[in-house]
Amino acid sequence: MAAKYNQSSTSNRNRSSNSSAKLIQLSKTLSWLLRHSVIKEGLQFQSDGYIFIDDVLRHHSFANKYTIDDIHQCVAINEKKRFGLKIDEATGKEMIRAHQGHSLEEANVEMREIVNPDEFSTIIHGTYTKHWPSIMDKGLSKMNRTHIHFAPGLPKESGVTSGMRGNANLYIYIDLEKALKDGFKFFVSSNNVILCPGDVNGFLPVRYFRSVENRRGEKLPIPIDSFKTNDSA
């Protein structure tokens, strides 16, 4: 009897592990498609970034691998609230989108402009110490995305669901009031990620850094010459 129980318990654990791995892979593939590859893959999407789930499931990366129930579960358990669902009023069909992180300029995701710096007492960009020399030189870059991403606090703090990777080991605190005063635009997405398109070249210069800390809470010095005005950075 004990042997049968152990076999059953092991089988259940294996099924649970396989299911988790499947949903993790689904989340990664959805992020790739919805954030970066909709146009390249020949799929239609609305101006707000939504795409029909039926079209997703017909795509070769999803067909015969995932079901609509898998997508529902993936959206429901995603801790960072990366995806949103809605019903298209015209067709009654279900649609999905990524809330932010797009490299598609055409995707006008739902976000609200921040006009009062007092709305967020803290905004932080999470990165890695290996990138600090480049950041000191040029500032923060949106890279291949449409915005630079920030969080309204550190990972696992109340209200912080996304905005930085959980394993980030360098935290850059932004002087939001100063940046807004100088004309930089900031927005907050529907999953509470703070977004900034940067300057004309997609950068937020170092002079808007309030402080920089590592995971141990130790402050890193910001060289005085990093605060130079550099419109090309």
From TrEMBL:
Region described as Disordered: 1-20
Reaction(s) catalysed (UniProt annotation): 2'-phospho-[ligated tRNA] + NAD(+) = mature tRNA + ADP-alpha-D-ribose 1'',2''-cyclic phosphate + nicotinamide
Keywords: NAD, Transferase
Organism: Rotaria socialis
MF GO annotations: tRNA 2'-phosphotransferase activity
InterPro entries cross-referenced by the UniProt entry: Ptrans_KptA/Tpt1, RNA_2'-PTrans_C, RNA_2'-PTrans_N
Function in brief: Catalyzes the last step of tRNA splicing, the transfer of the splice junction 2'-phosphate from ligated tRNA to NAD to produce ADP-ribose 1''-2'' cyclic phosphate.
Compositional bias per record (Low complexity), positions renumbered to this chain: 8-20
Protein name (Swiss-Prot/TrEMBL): 2'-phosphotransferase
Family named by the database record: Belongs to the KptA/TPT1 family.
Top-level taxon of the source organism: Eukaryota
